[in-house]
Amino acid sequence: MIKVEGLTKRYARKVAVDNISFEVQKGQIVGFLGPNGAGKTTTMRVLTCFLPPTSGTANVAGFDVQDQPMEVKRRIGYLPETPPLYPEMEVHEYLEFVGRIKGVLANDLTRRVNEVAEKCAIADVRKTLIGKLSKGYKQRVGLAQAIIHNPDVLILDEPTAGLDPHQIIETRELIKGLAGEHTIILSTHILPEVEQVCERVIIIAKGKLVATDTVANLTSRLRGAETVAVEVLAADAASVQRSLEQVAGVSRVIAGAHRDEKLHFTVESLEGRHIRPGLAKAVVDAGWQLNELHAVGLSLEEIFLQLTASPDEHKEAAPVEPVAAPAMGSDAQ
Amino acid sequence: MNTWTIAKKELNSYFRSPIAYGVMAFFALIAGYFFYVAVVYFVRRGIESSMMGQSFPMDVNEFVIRPVFSNISVIGLFLIPMITMRLFAEEKRTGTIELLLTSPVSDMSIILGKWLGGMMLYGAMLLLSAFSMALLFAYGQPDWHPIVIGYLGLLLQGGALLALGTFVSNCTKNQIVAGVAGFAVALLLWVIDWVSSFETSITAKVLSYLSVLQHFDSFSKGVLDTKDIVYYVSVIFVGLFLTARSMESLRWRA
Questions:
Q1: What is the side-by-side strand order in the sheet with A55-60?
Q2: What does DSSP assign to residue B61?
């Protein structure tokens, strides 16, 4: 449905998007993930024909953004970061206006406005001035505006930014509900959002494509080795460390801060091994008290930080955070 | 079709904001005052000349309608920047321009729509002065042709200034800047022919030709002069063309 090849967008002084290629299949929800200033908005603006690419091509629903922008625009619904609302208009007036300029036929207009108002839960504020709406409502009016012409592709730029937690959940549910009928690209720098909403994720940083995969794959790929934090109540730190090292599947044991008799260790497994049962058994069998044992899982958050951090930051970070070390190698895959 | 949709939206938002009411009230006040002064002057002169036994040519068109039209055309210079300043600047500031530019609407439809929206407000404003003109018909027998031509001239002159103002508004996202710069352009196009009062070189003639008000003279007299119509229509085209170019550059820069 969306095909981007070698897309580059250069502004006067800086390269905002650098040679990005990706594809999105029909009906998917794709998370477009990256820190602020990574080039998410720029890429979206190219896809929506707001900005022309410097080089490369972008193809939406079979039409090139540069050659046939009108066809592309007809098939795209776009919610920019700040919803493009006219505060002096009433909600239904605004939706009718957008419907008209998006090419909804006059006969269908009223029906479409009612449908999207229903779908986005704004039917109760139809006669309210947009300027008087709360932020959550404004965001939903923005979403309604994006789907009024029933577009094939929906592009949402940080749809939950600036909303309160309750509104964020509502908006996410709404977006999930829209999937299937529409192919959705949604940009965000909030990771749980991607985990909850998206099927696939495209990570970009500093204008470059860092990773593109399904959320599940990305998590498991980077979680190849397991890291476990252990707290043991024992007198002899050296012997605890030795016995932990002898557990099958352990690659190394790093001693952490010991306070009195509470000993902290960080244990790393070999690729693909589950070591937690073994560790627990080793401690208990030796007669020590096991206070705590938990996997230091790599959340998408950590993956993201690793993938988007620049190489220099890696070098500085590595000695301080040995926990992050094993996963780093795997982003070369 | 899209042009009309956008024009209606513009007109609608003028009347949802204080701009339309402010501009129209100001216009009604000043235009009414000009009309009052012209009529009083006309009546005084009529009485004076009849007292002195002279037969003064009592020509309403020459002594009331013509000065009123000239004065209205000057008010236009001040009010039109207020009409155009928000056209694009506001959309750029709030980001709604992204909605328009990502909709299947051509740039020209957007520009024409906005210009037309401005024209409709300007037309509504001019309509207020028609009340004064109607009074003349109630108490006298003025020739209606010069009135029609005068209004046509005002519309053409307004259209030209609106087109330039639209362009200025497209160059900035700050309404105040757009207003001030629009006013500066209008003012410059007014005073640019002053140089011709003491200079007779080619340059002075060219500058004089560029003046907006200079071309209104014939209309206020009730004369249709092709030269002046061509001038106003060309300025409209230049203004809208520049706006289109500015929109295009916005895409490459933004």
A1: A15-24, A2-10, A55-60, A63-64
A2: I
Picking from B249, B236, B224, the residue whose alpha carbon sits closest to that of residue B159 is B236
Interhelix angle for B66-84 vs B18-51, to 10°?
Answer: 170
Residue A92 near residue A117 (C-beta atoms within 8 A): yes
Domains and CATH numbers, chain A: 2-221 (3.40.50.300), 224-295 (3.30.70.3190)
Q: Would you call B13 and A86 a contact, using CB atoms and an 8 Å cutoff?
A: yes
First-residue to last-residue Cα distance in chain B: 28
Do B17 and A88 count as a contact with CB atoms less than 8 A apart?
yes
d(CA A247, CA A243): 7
**Helix (H, G, I), strand (E, B), or coil: what is residue A213?**
strand
Nearest residue of A to residue B16 by CA position? Answer: A88
Taking CA–CA distances from B96, the nearest residue in chain A reads A84
Backbone angles phi, psi at A76, to 5 degrees: -120, 135
B133-170 residue pLDDT tens = 888 888 888 888 889 999 999 999 999 999 999 999 99
Per-residue pLDDT, averaged over A62-77, amounts to 92
- Residues ≥6 apart with Cβ < 8 Å to A255: A237, A241, A263, A264, A265
Contact B95 A84 (CB under 8 A): yes
Question: Given an 8 Å threshold on Cβ–Cβ distance, is B103 in contact with A84?
Answer: no
Is residue A78 within a helix (H) or strand (E), and if so which, with residue range?
strand A76-79
Q: Residue A319: its pLDDT value, please? A: 38
What is the distance between the alpha carbons of residues A136 and A164, in angstroms, rounded to a whole number? 8
- Cα–Cα distance, B80 to B249 (Å, whole number): 25
Calculate Rg over the CA atoms of chain B. 20
Q: What's the ipTM? A: 0.88
Cα–Cα distance measured from residue B188 to residue B182, given in angstroms and rounded to the nearest whole number? 10
% pLDDT > 70, chain B: 98
Look over chain B and give the mean of its residue pLDDT values, rounded to a whole number: 90
Q: A35 CA to chain B: closest CA distance, Å?
A: 20
Q: What distance in Å separates the CA atoms of residue A64 and residue A7, rounded to the nearest whole number?
A: 12
- What is the per-residue DSSP string for A291-314? EEEEE----HHHHHHHHHS-HHHH
For A300, phi then psi, to 5°, come to -60, -30
- Mean pLDDT (chain A) is 82
Instruction: Give the bridge partners for B240, in sequence order.
Output: none
Q: Best of A45, A46, A50 to disrupt the B interface by mutation (most B CBs within 10 Å)?
A: A50
Cβ neighbours, 10 Å, residue B185: 20
Contact yes or no for A167/A136 (Cβ under 8 A): yes
CB atoms within 10 A of CB A319: 8
> B8 or A249: which carries more pLDDT confidence?
B8
Residue percentage of chain B with pLDDT more than 90: 62
What does the alpha-carbon distance between residue A32 and residue A180 come to, in Å, rounded to a whole number?
18
